[in-house]
């Protein structure tokens, strides 16, 4: 369930996005494309950190259940998704 991407992969993603922005005549940007790529990189990294924090919070919540639910079980997966969805909706984010 974790969103693990290396810095190199995030850098590659941000480069692909900025290349698309540069090639698309319908998109305008006000800043230097290098700065745009830099901002995209940091936005992705911030989102990944946020999801890691949410996952840790949900794991802690799972540990405080009255009865222990074995990790990896069907019940654990259902509860984990439920709690992740709740945390994300509290932040105004959507999870499918």
Keyphrases for this structure?
96 residues, mainly alpha, 0% strand, single chain
Number of helices: 3
Task: Give a quick account of the main beta sheet: strands, pairing sense, barrel closure.
Answer: none
Contiguous low-pLDDT stretches (5 residues minimum) are none
Tally of structural domains: 1
Q: Tell me the Rg in angstroms.
A: 18 Å
Which bin fits the share of residues in helices?
55-70%
Strand elements, count? 0
Q: What is the assembly state of the chains in this entry?
A: single chain
What is the overall silhouette? elongated
The first-to-last residue Cα distance is: 12 Å
What does this structure look like?
The structure is a single chain. By secondary structure, this protein is an all-alpha fold. It has one domain. The protein is built from 3 helices and no strands. It has helices spanning 7-23, 33-63, 74-90. 5% of the residues are buried.
SSE blueprint:
Blueprint: H1 7-23, H2 33-63, H3 74-90
Helix pairs in contact: 1-2, 2-3
Question: How do you describe this structure in short?
Answer:
The protein is an all-alpha fold. The protein has three helices and no strands.
